[in-house]
Amino acid sequence: QTFYLKDYKPFGYEVESVKLTFQLSPNATKVHSAIRFTPKADAEDNRFFLHGEQLSLISAKIDGTPVTARLVDGGLECDVPRTSFLWEAEVEIDPAANTALEGLYMSNGMYCTQCEAEGFRKITYYPDRPDVMSTFTVRIEGDEPVMLSNGNPTGAGEGWAEWHDPWPKPAYLFALVAGDLVNHPGSFTTKSGKEVELNIWVRPGDEGKCAFGMEALKKSMKWDEDVYGLEYDLDLFNIVAVDDFNMGAMENKGLNIFNSSCVLASPETSTDANFERIEAIIAHEYFHNWTGNRITCRDWFQLCLKEGLTVFRDAQFTADMRSEPVKRIEDVIALRARQFPEDGGPLAHPPRPEEFQEINNFYTATVYEKGAEVIGMLKRLVGDDNYYKALNLYFERHDGQACTIEDWLKVFEDATGRDLSQFKLWYSQAGTPRVKVSEEYADGTYTLTFEQSTPPPPGQPEKAPRVIPIAVGLLSPNGDEVRATEVLELTEAKQSFTFDGLASKPVPSILREFSAPVILERETTNSERAFLLAHDTDPFNRWEAGNALAKEVRVAMVLDGAAPDAAYLDALEKLVRDDEQDPAFRALVLSPPSQSDIAQTLHERGHTPDPQKIYDAAETFTQTLAQQLETSLPRLYAATTVEGPYVPDADGAGKRALNSRILSLLTRLDGGEQAARQYASADNMTQQYAALAALMKAEKGEAQSKAFFEQWQDDRLVMDKWFALQIACAAPETTAATAKELTQHPLFSMKNPNRFRAVMGALAGNHAGFHHASGAGYQLLAENLIALDSVNPQTTARMCAAFQTWKRYDSKRQAQIQTELERILATSDLSRDTHEMVSRMLSA
Ligand code: ARG
Ligand code: ZN
């Protein structure tokens, strides 16, 4: 069944209030619901249909009288009065058998829920759609020491607890948690003086991993007040860490539930990257309280209304807490690695899709990350003041509502007087625009001409030109900035912009801060790229110049068997040795483009990427770079080593990132001596992990890998690192075998998404290993996806996307992948989730 945006119809009934009673039992939980419905006078459709899946209906009553409900596909129907009535139902569910981790399920003996997007219908019969909002009162009966739900506690006693959430909400924000939990407490006083009790709830033993998350939460609350003027609206804010979780985290009202990997942190067990990610996700979920909960989505087609905006807000937060340019560079790397391939392949869809079979398949990089890019463009086009003016209007006008992208754009139009009809194409068109740039200089006038086009994804129409904000600055040949950043608005298919009064032909710095999610195509030289790497005043474009240079060098190595470009190696050496430069920036410039990125670049230029050749070029390049830097590496290593107690701040993280890059180069030359010393003396995971990774990459880490296992075998999150690292470091010909062996390991499990992703995600992420000519990587992933599908469809479907780039490769690999995709599709009882993903990949 396919659902369409154009078919939207409001529900015919108002839900006045919801009262739920849970009698908890692992295999037979009873859920009693008492829901007051009032028929809408103006309803176009008064069919009384309630969603429900995998429920055993015990009884149904209307106004106290038993009724017979008709069970239909996906729910039930019932004849109901034309006036307000009380619906009561009792159902039984089996949380312990729920391995899909959607609805009410159990994780390590603890009850928890995940209702977004359509999990509430596995808890009770209900109009499970985001535009149906109501207040919830919840009573939990059971013998669990801690029993939580949304909102404020209203009573508790031996074997029961009651909760009331005064804010009307859609069912997808419902949450319940019960189990043996301990809390790390905190508090926050809001700007209007209200004290909010904060808690992070964890399993006993994890208490020591909560402090960082608590600080991140307080910083988020303060930041949202300072920057957006938004205050928290309940007396209590709870976060719970759960080991078995399909996604990162969930913004349930007043009761956020987190994948434990996205909240638990300690210096001994978490890397700098983990700390940064945890801080960002805590902020993201907290920010949803306004952008998502107070203002929610009318239907799931509007998902990017809350996700794009909330990702945009959490990126602003991270930029403010840490380094703005570093955050931007990291985000663009991620966008190109995850969203561009999606947008250019068979799974392409606009940020606001118009059809889906399974909405869980649309929690994508396009909805989230491109959704956030679209908001960044909007902000750049209207300016900061107008942006916040529009946002104020959004909160004022739509608080308590379930909204659409049209509502969102309308507040910008009303606040700024700007016509956004062309801008709206960003929401409705799929595909990454390509922007071709050419230049002309004569008599002091410099002209930039842009041409935009978007290759239409199969089955989609020709694309109309979009509004593309292009931030441009000009540099003189001696490196001075002669024109500060200016935003050019490209609105036509082809358009020119001129700059007068220039003394000589300038060097342009185009798409500063990556002002639009496009592919820029411009004929330029490596010496101009090196010039920008040295002189651009925009840090993003300085990095971008280095990145483009690195790509050119690597592409030339792959295509012509060229040696690594000497001028580039010199430029790198100069930058790495320049202690005036920010270490985090140097670390980024020193991190080569990923092999999959090179494959994508080759594909964009009409070549068929050969993963083995790309791998060999990467190896040769890194080895040559190590040799070039040989004499300075020991000094650089010493100079970038961070002494003293570990602090997970941006400064330290930047230094450690550079130090780790240098260690990995050094390890190629010194037989692993320095890395072994670092491994032995490390008192934090960042340095321990960096040393282990360097050693394993050089095939010198067997002893340390064993020791690591011994030390950390009881820590599930650290063990995920151990599983993933072995596969990430494996040579192409042994990657699949390594992954296969790890699936036989006693600690491997299909039931824990983190562990499954650690192994299968690392397999898919090892470009040359996954795409090894034997086809063993494809086969292993397909086998495991087939096995996982009956356990956990959502995670299976998500991981199928590893195959989305298949049309990039040669016909032999395409045939191998096609065989695997067809094998998956032929599996009996394949889930709707996986079926949709695989058939989309096959049909394009
Ligand atoms: N709304 C959550 C977040 O972005 C993601 C939950 C998605 N869950 C799902 N089953 N698709 O913070
Ligand atoms: Zn979100």
Automatic annotation (TrEMBL):
Residues 431-522 form the Peptidase M1 alanyl aminopeptidase Ig-like fold domain. Residues 19-173 form the Aminopeptidase N-like N-terminal domain. Coiled coil: none annotated. It comes from the Bacteria. Keywords: Aminopeptidase, Hydrolase, Metal-binding, Metalloprotease, Protease, Zinc. InterPro entries: Aminopeptidase_N-like_N, Aminopeptidase_N-like_N_sf, PepN_Ig-like_sf, Peptidase_M1, Peptidase_M1_dom, Peptidase_M1_pepN, Peptidase_M1_pepN_C, Peptidase_M1_pepN_C_sf. One of its GO terms (molecular function) is zinc ion binding. It catalyses: Release of an N-terminal amino acid, Xaa-|-Yaa- from a peptide, amide or arylamide. Xaa is preferably Ala, but may be most amino acids including Pro (slow action). When a terminal hydrophobic residue is followed by a prolyl residue, the two may be released as an intact Xaa-Pro dipeptide. Its cofactor is Zn(2+). Residues 212-423 form the Peptidase M1 membrane alanine aminopeptidase domain. Residues 527-842 form the Peptidase M1 alanyl aminopeptidase C-terminal domain. Belongs to the peptidase M1 family. This is Aminopeptidase N. It comes from Phaeobacter italicus.
